[in-house]
Amino acid sequence: MAEAGRIKTPAALPLWAEPVTQVRTAIVVTTLILWEAIARSGLLYQDVVPSLLAIGGAVAKLLGTSDFYGNLWVTAGEAATGLAIGGVAGLVVGLVLGANRLLAKAFESYLYYLGPTPKIIFFPVMIMWFGIGPGSKIAMGAISCFFPIALSTAAGMRQIDKVLIRVGRSFRANAWQMAMKIYLPAMRRPTVNGVRLGLGVTIIGTLLAEIKLSNRGIGFLIIQAYNVFDMPRMYALLVVLFVIAIGANAFVGWIGGVGSIASR
Amino acid sequence: MLMYPLFMVIFGRSASTIIVVGSVAGLPPVILKTIEGLAATPRVLINVGRSFKLTGPQLFIKILLPAALPTMFVGVRLGLIFALINVVGVEYLINFGGLGQLINDLAERYDLPGTYAAIFFVVLVSVCFFVFTERVERWLRPAE
Q: What pLDDT does residue A222 have?
């Protein structure tokens, strides 16, 4: 999806003649044609796979309504708050585990084992703790992004070149200076990648929570469109969502100065 | 995983939806890691095969496949974990079959001890899953 969204708009002209670009374009075009063929064939129930025109129309209609932007801000706010809480917590835990060998040995395996559990199962408990409002969605987002960020920060801290640390020591840098001048710049790349992973799972966690139980937000719009069987609208929401997610991902990479998705 | 309403429409609220979501989630890491494993085969090994005049299929079975197997299994393991996450998640969301439904049912009945127990159980299951696949991976990895 990420690939498809990115390459649909070839950036520079000399690129189009390259074989890679041609193959990519061919794949995208074939997918779109197949989609349209399935939509027209009547193989599946009517409207399950709406034609591209219908989806395009629904996207245009969606972007024209103010209702959509209100819900978008709700979701964006929840995801951003969740990312902030879980990200800061993950960063702190990652730094502590990366700096302290004993704590890392004691606790990191728990993080590794808890990392791959399906986070959505904590949602019923989060509802009890934080209510059915935005609180539980923020909590889901925070839980989701805590693990990847903590683990990649800890790993990044351990990968720092020893020479750099020794240079800092020999300049008699204090703890704060060490953190700001040596550790953080040296571990920028793994941390930014962790935040990217965290961003993705935060968005997914928030949206799933909204789909399960909410009355606002993009997830609510998606499940509402599903419930009234408004397929073009549902696809339109998903398409817009993918575009936003790719944009947010690129934005985080750009802030962190780690190239685009392609050069990862 | 957000595509699941789409599969619900196509396959209905049934086990096939859950299976499809799980396989879609598990597919990308397997593909990516397989590519990575095959591409990272040491040139020396391939050259050895060439000098023995191995044919294409022989080269693949004797050289490329064994060399790529450990990396491929990393992909399989990631895929299994992704599939587990998504399967339980979708079960919880659509309240159909399995551990996800168990948690949802208990939570909706406000059986809090039961909910916590079920959540703990799911965590335990995924930890077992993780440890088991890790063991297999270590077993597959060539001795260094």
A: 86
Under the banding of pLDDT at 50, 70 and 90, the label for residue A2 is: very low
Chain A residues with CB inside 8 Å of B129's CB? 116
pLDDT digits (tens, 9 = 90+) for A27-76: 889 988 888 888 777 776 667 778 888 888 888 888 888 888 888 888 88
What's the token pair of residue A253? 């990479």
Vertex B25, ends B78 and A77: CA angle to 5°? 100
Cβ-Cβ contacts under 8 Å for A131 (sequence gap 6 or more)? none
- What are the structural domain ranges in chain B? 4-140
User: What is the C-alpha separation between A104 and A95, in angstroms, rounded?
Assistant: 10
CATH number of B4-140: 1.10.3720.10
| Pairwise CB contact (< 8 Å): A238 & B126 | no
Is any Cβ of chain A less than 8 angstroms from the Cβ of B116?
yes
Q: What CATH number labels A58-158+187-256?
A: 1.10.3720.10
How distant is the alpha carbon of residue A35 from its chain centre?
A: 26
Which residues make Cβ contacts (< 8 Å) with residue A210, sequence separation at least 6? Answer: A75, A78, A137, A216, A217, A218, A219, A220, A223
Cα B126 to chain centroid, rounded: 12
